[in-house]
Amino acid sequence: MSLFRLEQAEYCYPDGTRAVEAMDLAVEPGRFYGIVGPNGSGKSTLLDLMLGYKEPASGRVLFRDRPLSSWRRRDLAREIALVPQEFALTFPFSVEEIVFMGRYPHIPRFGTPGRKDREAVLRTMERIGIASYRDRYITELSGGEKQRAVVARALVQATNVLLLDEATSNLDIKHGLQLLDLVRQRQARHGVTVVSVFHDLNQALRFCDELILLKRGRLVRCGPAAEAATEETLERVFDVRAKPYFEPSLGCRQAVFWTEGREIGEEMA
Amino acid sequence: MHPLSGKAALQQIILACVLLCLIVVSTGMGYIDIPVPTVFRALWAKTFSLRDMLTGIQETHLVTIFEVRLPRILTAAAVGAGLGLSGAVFQGILLNPLADPYTLGVSAGAAFGASTALLFVPALLGPYTVFIFAFAGAVLTLFAVISLSSSAGGMSSNNLILSGVIVTAILSAGISFCKYLAQERVSVIVFWLLGSLASSTWLEVGLVLSVVGLGFGICLYYARALNIICLGGRTASTLGISPQRTRLILLVTASLIAAVCVAVSGIIGFVGLLVPHMMRGVTGPDHMKLLPVSLLCGGILLLGADTLTRAVLPQEVPIGVLTSLLGGPFFCYIFRRRQMAL
């Protein structure tokens, strides 16, 4: 049984331009998917469709064989969590308060957070290494610290699916890799399904089992990372010259890019 | 998001005690000085229907307490509480610490309604004509602003604020025109706009208290959801909240509270802006804690200001003028201090 299934799903902006066109896609449980494509290819919109935040103009988006729109939001919040790129916070909530918000779907309507919730929050903060600054204001943290609080908020939601929207694009190399390592651990140990929008194709090649390649709202290719990232596909999607190669130190494929008219090594010569 | 910690509960208890004490003390103050123990005894007797305890208290004192002062004092406390609560909710929903209960033009709508009533039909619906017109004006404005902002591509904070500004500008012109038409009778309109709690009645007390009480219940129920909405609509929707629906419910609730307050007391500025600001410094931004203390502190502040103008100052200053006169500089001080802290 596929976890997500898109059947001819389309999404249009209010002004009529199509962000996602007639898309058929199946997401299998327990795997790490990477959505890649150039700017304006519909990556975030596809993620919004899978979140149920946007509704398809036509076609269907099914989650566990039921249309997303028929799910109660609260039930969905116990199944799917989101790590956004960043959130701008006007008010100085503490790190602990932010992480606690992830327990919201588990707290009864008229109830208060119980011991189980508090333990889950504390455990997650410790595992992610933010327990030492749990009382600090989120507004005064650095980008890396803030993003870890955001990840903790999503993990404490205890969902089977984790969606990431360019979660590492505001982080430096080390913090970006740490975050993705953490997510992959979660996938390996708990069987969590991950779907992540990537800005950086090489990060996607390194961490993902499957690639979803988009261009102008259309699905170009979906398949195992090593097979999908061919020279021909990459050039078609990104409109640049590309050369995928096997990187032995990472044990996976990587790719280099250059624009037309300049060959590899020309600069060096 | 935590269960109310001991500290938060303590803050609320202290503020509630201060408010109760202020009500008792304020009742004793005024043209006729009534000793606090007498006030306390009279209030105690009335609250628990103990007729025997009322013997020995002068009849004039009883009339002063229950017919003259208490309606005004309770109205002041309830209006202040309503404005404090409404301001906190508005700042949360609009993610804008400059928002206040009047951001969506509720005050201009009420003022326009009241001006029309005062000018054309001051006694159409009996003694509550102005109140009814003011309230209707506020509610109509609210729905005009909400429909204007939701037609412009989703109910975003900026759309709401901008729609509020536009509608307020149009209504201000309407109010000016009313004043122009009123000619020598303009003073009635001007005095209403300045705000006053004098001549409040028990009916008004009941009305404001019930609306503020009910509104407080609704806002507190959505307080956790409001915290999460501060993370942005997309994240909020992944936590099981419908951001649009929750924001609409809270906007309408907070605006109706503000509408009743304005209809009863006229336009009282700065309470709804200042109180949530001050209190956020005490409790932090968690609305589970912020809303109750904003409610209590608003009541304390407005009752304090009204007692000042009623019983302390040699000449009664309109309450709307007083709150802005005191609130403005104080706001400058807080604003400046926060800039230093950053």
Number of domain units of chain B: 1
CATH architecture of chain B: Orthogonal Bundle
Strand content of the residues of chain B, in percent?
under 5%
Largest sheet of chain A: 6 strands, mixed
> Approximately how much beta-strand content do the residues of chain A carry?
25-35%
Shape assignment of chain A:
globular
Unreliably modeled segments of chain A: none
Largest interface: A-B, 38 and 28 residues
Number of helices of chain A: 9
Number of DSSP strand runs of chain B? 0
Share of residues in helices of chain B = over 70%
Q: Give the low-confidence spans of chain B.
A: none
CATH superfamily annotation of chain B: ABC transporter involved in vitamin B12 uptake, BtuC
* Overall radius of gyration of chain B: 21 Å
- The computed structural class of chain B is mainly alpha
Distance between the termini of chain A: 54 Å
Profile the largest sheet of chain B: none
Annotation field: number of helices of chain B = 14
Please write the string of helix (H) and strand (E) elements of chain A.
Answer: EEEHEEHEHHHEHEHEEHHEE
Radius of gyration of chain A: 20 Å
CATH topology of chain B: ABC transporter involved in vitamin B12 uptake, BtuC
